[in-house]
Task: structure prediction
Amino acid sequence: MDYQSFGKKFEDISGITITPFKEGSKEIDWNGVKENVKFLINRGVNVLVPCGNTSEFYALTLEEVKEEIRYVVECANKRATVLAGVGYSVATAIELGNYAKDVGADCIMIHMPVHPFMTDDGVVDYFKSIIENVDLPAVIYFKNPAISDRVLEELSSLERLVAVKYAINDLPRFARTVHSIPAHHNITWVCGIAEKWAPFFFHAGARGFTSGLVNLYPEKSLELLAALKKNDETKVWSVWNEVLPFENLREKYNSGVNVAIVKEGMRQIGLNPGVTREPVSPLSAEDKAAVRTLIHQWNLDIPKQPQ
Amino acid sequence: MDYQSFGKKFEDISGITITPFKEGSKEIDWNGVKENVKFLINRGVNVLVPCGNTSEFYALTLEEVKEEIRYVVECANKRATVLAGVGYSVATAIELGNYAKDVGADCIMIHMPVHPFMTDDGVVDYFKSIIENVDLPAVIYFKNPAISDRVLEELSSLERLVAVKYAINDLPRFARTVHSIPAHHNITWVCGIAEKWAPFFFHAGARGFTSGLVNLYPEKSLELLAALKKNDETKVWSVWNEVLPFENLREKYNSGVNVAIVKEGMRQIGLNPGVTREPVSPLSAEDKAAVRTLIHQWNLDIPKQPQ
Result:
């Protein structure tokens, strides 16, 4: 495994796949998973992340996590890099990671621990134990502002750690950490909070960003990525202004509707995202209307059939 | 099942059991679990909570969660009420809850969902789905300040919901919620943030409190409970002042050492708590010394053997 160059794959959009749940039973609609993967790949998304937060990872059983990873790998059929989300206890994350390897995932993304008590050194040990016991390139999803970035500095020398998905919106802190870690560790920095924050993170050293928006409007995310890579500031800000209202809508109710908004957008353009699971509730009519307005502004409305 | 009176069991101390992990392998030391349960019961603790936060619930695999519940029930042997912690996705929590019932646990404590996205209505659905699908009295562990107490108001009419372990240190908010829920719903309110906050919560309507301190100094916790029940203010504040430095120590490093401090205290008085698991790291020499000082002040030092 050439870990040194592997991280370059994340100088791209990491598309977090949604998990479609059937209305009523709330079971996973596996056909919907397949359609979602096909849509993303056909529209030019190169990195798929099953079992990220937009996938409602924490609403899945461990069996479902495994099957989602396995099935996304199967559907992607080597046409995209599959970055499989794993987490929970160290032993559970290792089990999920080894399963991901067995079924052919390319790499793992380790969620931040959900434990209410953690120390910097304990978090180093947490990630290190998982990385050392899963023989795949690893990406850390770093999102707890109470934990020091020293954790990343200490882990950066691990060969398997190829990228960090940084999800704390503190730009000076992020920039300082990027600068403090030697380039020869080959860490690819990824903005972990999507299009809204991507321009700022790129300016501070990120080379890729995560996206939930890709599930309905990948063209726009790819346009942003291209503009960021070319340093085309005019284009960056015009695309950014186009997607901002959607990303802001996802932040309503303390981000409680984050995934519900994405799924509603998908539904309105004719895709089959299903519903969300608890602890997320269905959208209000008002929020659905707000999505409708944006879909219309983006000209993504489904053409009306003649009566 | 007489749900109406069941909640009265929580007008008491809910003793959160620690999970002893072996030095090195970090496997669960089942003999240590047995000793811990024996210690708690012998010292007068009536309610045991395996798989709470002090049990390092989130550092356990699901198989370990199940075995910990089963084994604590076996060790308690009906000499204490066993309140089994369950959580994660709805389906996982139901599976754990039904397992708890099968092995003889008396009731379940449902952890707050760990999902990064949640809405008030979604949290109602989350708890409701679990409560409706596990045929045991249920206690909600309510600790996310971003979620409205309206959730508790809506769930309070469920017959199986017998108590709420309230873990948000906003007293006016707590008092208002206690007052707003009709008495005939028979919800027992429990201070979910232990001895330090118990006097304030009792004043506002709590009738019991959770405790990690019981794992080493149950006499002190029981003294506080008795004083609170008798409204013996002098005693309440004298005990409170005795335990406060210990509870404050547990809050150091954003509570990262919460359980490590308890385990260190247990170790210093000759119990066998083992070590903590990731993402918690071992205590510094300085923090161990701080525990030593308190143990000495409490006169819990192990008598020195003659040389």
User: Anything to note?
Assistant: Chain A has a mean pLDDT of 97.
